[in-house]
Amino acid sequence: MADARALNPLSGRGRQAEARRNDLAVLDAARDVFTAHGASAPVTAVAERAGVGMGTLYRRYGSKTELLQRMCVLAMQQALDAAAGALQADDPWAGLAGYIRDCVELRAGALASLAGQVETTAEMRATAQRGLAATAEIVARAQQDGSLRADVTPLDINWLIEQFSRRARDPVDPGEERNVRSRLLAIALDGLRARPAGQALPGRPPSPEHYANRWSHDH
Fold it and tell me: How far apart are CA 34 and CA 45, in angstroms?
């Protein structure tokens, strides 16, 4: 469902393509390192895992804080590419399910572990708002179509993606981990389906204030 450029770091040519490959390699490494160890993890661990030199990192990002901020924006931009594909789908349910699967495959929500540990920028906030708006549109299409249960909110989808974005840093059996994740995601997607006289979801809808306030640096 997602734009192939978001999934394929080899697309494009020249310096721009090389910069994009480096960005995506660093993003994947950052997801692994900072998810496992939080914002206090050393940048050297990211560089080593990404296969790039420290000089490359600091020339491109300037500081650790700028690196973390840039990685958050890149992750959200990948999710926006996936959302664009979902909104082009003829079948709203297929669009929603494809969007969730793409975001889980990209680990779009993995850097949520940095919430409250890095100062947010205007670009981060603007990109997050675009992402929330896109998710809301995807959800609205599927509910209007009657395929998505009416009591699901866009934030339910975002929290679901965050939960499935978590990974063990170095799993003993990656193939089995993918197998289990695929099965559990299928179960979760089935639970989103609208059903006649279905039981209401427990509790109250996720709070937008709680979702946003996690990123407060003061908090």
Answer: 9
